[in-house]
Design brief:
single chain, 83 residues, mainly alpha, 6 helices, 61% helix
């Protein structure tokens, strides 16, 4: 399962959203995630991909949309997790 599929499944499970709406340009504001949603997604990412997503990344505007999050996870995965 790739990063996009994993996040799509996680978000669909947390929020009542049509998965066809989960395009890379979709912002986190548009998803209307609450603080518990962010924490849950961060924990799932850390467990699955061994990548830490800190709240600062969102607050600083480094992660604005799903595409940013996909790219960040893919760029920061340990090599063992990729295999």
């Amino acid at each position: 399962m790739n990063v996009a599929e994993f996040l799509r499944d996680a978000i669909v499970e947390l929020k009542d959203v049509d998965e066809s709406a989960l395009v890379p340009a979709l912002t986190f504001e548009e998803l209307e995630l609450d603080s518990l949603d962010y924490v849950e997604i961060q924990l799932r990412i850390k467990k699955k991909f061994k990548v830490e997503i800190t709240p600062d990344l969102f607050a600083a505007g480094q992660l604005k949309n799903l595409g940013d999050l996909y790219a960040y996870i893919e760029a920061n995965q340990p090599q063992a997790a990729v295999a």
